[in-house]
Amino acid sequence: MEKLFFCTHWGSEQLEWAVFLRKVKAAGYDGLEVSLPADPAVQKKMIRALDDLDLKLIAVHWDTVSPDFKVHRQEMESRLLAIAQTKPLFITSHTGKDHFSFEQNIALLSLAKEISEKTGVPIVHETHRGKFSFAAHTTHAYLEKLPWLQLTLDISHWFAVAESYLEDQAFAVDLALSRTAHIHSRIGFTQGPQVGDPREPEWTEALDHHLKCWDKVLEMQEKRKSSVFTFTSEFGPYPYMASKRADAAAHQWALNNYMKDLLKTRYYAT
Question: Tell me, what's a Pfam family for it (predicted)?
Answer without folding.
Answer: AP_endonuc_2
